[in-house]
Amino acid sequence: MRALVPDQQGSVEIADVEEPIETPGATLIDVRAFSPNRGETFLMSSPLDGWRPGKDVAGVISTAGGHFPLGTRVVAHTPSHGWAERALVPEAAVAVLPESVSFDIAAALPLAGLTALRLLQTAGSLVGRTLLITGASGGVGHYVVELAVAAGAEVTAVTASLERGARLRELGASIVTDVEQAPGSFDVAMESVGGLSLPAVRRKVRPDGLIIWFGQASLQPPTLDFFDWVGGGAGAPIVQFHYQRTPTQDGRDLRTLVRLTDTDRLHPEIGSTLPWERTADVIAAIRGRSLRGNAVLTITAASSKESTHEVH
Hints:
Elements: E1 2-6, E2 12-16, E3 26-34, H1 38-43, E4 56-61, E5 73-77, E6 86-90, E7 94-96, H2 103-107, H3 110-123, E8 130-133, H4 139-150, E9 154-158, H5 166-170, E10 174-176, E11 186-191, H6 197-202, E12 205-213, E13 238-240, H7 247-262, E14 270-275, H8 279-287, E15 294-298
Parallel strand pairs: 8-9, 8-11, 9-10, 11-12, 12-13, 14-15
Antiparallel strand pairs: 1-2, 3-4, 3-6, 3-15, 4-5, 5-7
Helix pairs in contact: 3-4, 3-7
């Protein structure tokens, strides 16, 4: 079968690989669409031997006799190897798709959606609270904003430009292009940029608030000043967050995301839908931060019911 493999130059290329070997507790999916994530693009710079990218996939079950009937439409979150014509995924990390949710939309749900859902679970009740989120124009940010606003939060989103924040504004967030522009102090902050962003965010959060640190997209480590902690001026605790859970929890939370999408309460922001031959272009767009929301790649033209958008 064909799959996308690291090209040893920081990107990927299509190559022939061996078929997945079925194992107990796993099911085989004929992949119709997948969605790259920023973290995967970092791993391509120095890939481990045998590693292939691919965490977020949607398609149809091609294993007979498993937990899911043959031909069932599903979305899944798998550790790797998903950017291929077929992918072997843990059965526990699979959710069934209703006909109303296309493969393209579903492929954008797993990592970004799971991250957003679990960030909000970490934050606790947001009714009547103020929330600041940085790096908000990606897939995670769009999910966080929509879910947090629906939960009763007043959200301020930090994006690289007002244009990149346009959809977030439609979802109910206030948009700023620099942390220092964010008005007032906040009950909760979600920080994913790193560098100078984390200390700036900390100065914007109430001493009795909470900062959830969930990424470092700039690849620049943050520097915290000891004297910022003196006198109670910026005393909010910082909680380090990682989205990973067990496959069983992945399946449960994926079912939640599918249900919210099916009932028109969650709307994945897809900035690009292209055939998988264009994956290298999408990776470059993700690295260049020119893509808003999620990107989706389709393996067969017939699998996509969404319109195709060019990567800018």
